[in-house]
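Hi there, hope your week has been kind to you so far. Would you mind checking whether the tokens look sensible for this chain? I owe you a coffee for this, so here goes:
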Amino acid sequence: MAPEKKSHRKPAIIVSLSDYKRLSRLAEAHATRDPEVSGELLSELDRARIVKDDQIRADVVSMGSTLRFTSDLGEDRTVTLVFPGEADIAAGKISILTPIGAALIGLSVGQSIDWSARDGRVYRLTVEAVEAPAVDTVAAAASAEHRTAS
């Protein structure tokens, strides 16, 4: 008898209107350079519930959020979700234009999602804690995103 293949439905996600607009433009701008990750991000944005910026809960992963997640490999990591120009894996800054970055956007504490690494393997991660971005971080991210898209 063949082993059962687990299939998990993707969890409901929430994205602020400003993140939705910026990330849609970013994904479209990178569609020819990296169509796979760009497509994954657009797919996540398409299924998100979009809310006004002042209605996004603090426990939802947004651009600039610092979060802690655990994985099915036993990892326990704390990272900050950033635009590509700010990414620095050594400093724990994960780009939204990576498979894991696209998977994290919009998740809230307690939610799990499967994501495909660049090597094709599928991993499951669970968001354990989220710290909302500081207001000045959001402004800096918008400025960085503007420079990246230009």
Q: What stands out?
A: Confidence is low (pLDDT under 50) at residues 1-5, 145-150.
